[in-house]
Amino acid sequence: MRILITNDDGINAPGLKALAGIAETLAGPDGEVWTVAPAFEQSGVAHCINYTKPTLITQLGTRRYMIEGSPADCVLCALYDPMKDARPDLILSGVNRGNNASENTLYSGTIGAAIEGALQGVPSVALSQYFGPNNNGLDDPFEAAAQHGADVCRRILSQKENDANGYGLFWNVNFPPIAATEVKGIRLAPQGRRPGVNFSTIPHVSPNGRRFLWIAGGDQHTPPAQGTDAAVNLDGYISVTPMRADLTAHDAFDGISDLNT
User: Which domain of life does the protein's organism represent (predicted)?
Assistant: First the structure.
């Protein structure tokens, strides 16, 4: 199996090292793992692409490249430059430092790479490691993802996709904030919404009197409805959420049918 890995935390992020181990296990001794990752952290860029200026690509080693761009740029650059003659069988994005569950999903560059992979017709999985007091102090806080990631991906790849929608599936996987041995299992879960949790801003005045705003996240331990992604993570389970890039609110069609003329 030929696998492309990328992330939004940057080429030197420890989560990318964990992802490389997952990919090597999946690829097997006769497979290939290619890395095309951002030069710098790209958290929060979602599905952004570098559309108005050229993107610098630098080869760092065998099948290892660095891009001055977003995670979606990394996927595009990989597919149409270093891997143009041998496209990947699978794209893995992550392992993100922090959860990409609930509303975080919408902002995530980790998810953005998986979206682009799916739009390009390549099976794609985004993987993120929830952080909390029960894994922050571990020698390897990514150990839940590192030890369970390959098995989760194998289970996902065994599923038969229904692509009648036109937009291919991609998968969002979040590992709970606990040690690997404490993981209870896997739960198929829809995307949740943490009540009252939103990004906001915190003002700061610099020594020269200029006013700046820091973007701040909300409480990551506020659970959404039971059975949704962040909720099952906080209960000790790995969440697996199938997604599509179709933003249509299909459930609203009946209620607004009077708009038709």
Answer: Bacteria
